[in-house]
Specification:
Length: about 350
Amino acid sequence: MDDNSALCCCEYYDINYERNHILACCCNCEDLDEAFERFISGRSVPDKRRQAVIMTIQDRLRIPWRGGAKQIAFDAILPVFIIPCMLLIASISVWWTIFSFTTVLIFLVFISSFLIRTIPFTKFFFVWTCMSLVTLYVIFEFIVIPFLEILLIENIALSVLIFGFVMCVYIMKKRTQHLPRLGDAEYGYTGQFSCKWVNCSKCQVKVPDKDHHCIWFDCCVGKHNQCSFILSLLFAISALLYSSNLTLTSVCHPFSFFKTILLPDDCSEVYKLFELSFSFVSAVYSIIIALLLLILLCQQLLLVSLGLSLKEWTRLSFGSKLCMALTAHRPNNRGFCNNWKSVICWNKLYLQTNQVENS
């Protein structure tokens, strides 16, 4: 067949720019053969060889498509299957709930170090965040709402909180895209709000006073978007706790708190019906995520107040952390009010500085 002819739905050009077919995905793979040979012989597989195997799998994992087979990232599609399966298994019984959540937690600990080392630009964690959001919202709208225990105003309030979270994440990523790219001229402030620009190899941008790279949002967090990051955590925690309370009071026996607030009381019968158990475990999953985000939110509030980045905090001694870093050297600390002002008003100051420099 002529190499210049049109591709059929199962053909594609691989990483070596050679014409290939989906059915040949398991053929002629030297990296996989050598890695498997080392594994069965008890020898360690070098990181370079592991990365080559991952790249080969990513290149050959494709689906038939008009005009040529389309590539799909296996690390990005894992959450699409893991999250629904985790909730389905957890809905069998209370012991399966404990087993399912514990297994997934251990899996995330191991897979995170593996993916960050072998696939630095992985979308696994960002897809996990998106898939969790979509799954929980779909369960709430199509399983919990039909119980007819949720008022319209409560549903609207939850939707507003979710919309606020999505918009904050969008603003975070949008502001990061507008930062100077690696290799551009140096940027900075003079005076009270000067900042240090740190290169991020994952985002390929220069980040002002970089705090950390958030793998769950696939975005760097720095002075330019730290306010949006904190607001996104507030919206996410509020939405998760609110939705879990609405779900639990719908599937469990509720009681009135001060005659105005409904709280769940007895949930011993939720595993008798699939719809009840599935809704229950989704609420438990929401509470777990909310607690983790609450810890992250408290950490962010503390770091901004102290004028520290997450990297600087991790370098502190245990004694300094016990004293909330009040006795530690903090070169970027400008006082409580100015620390928060630099985070909240950073983009306004950035635009004003650029206008002055351009004029």
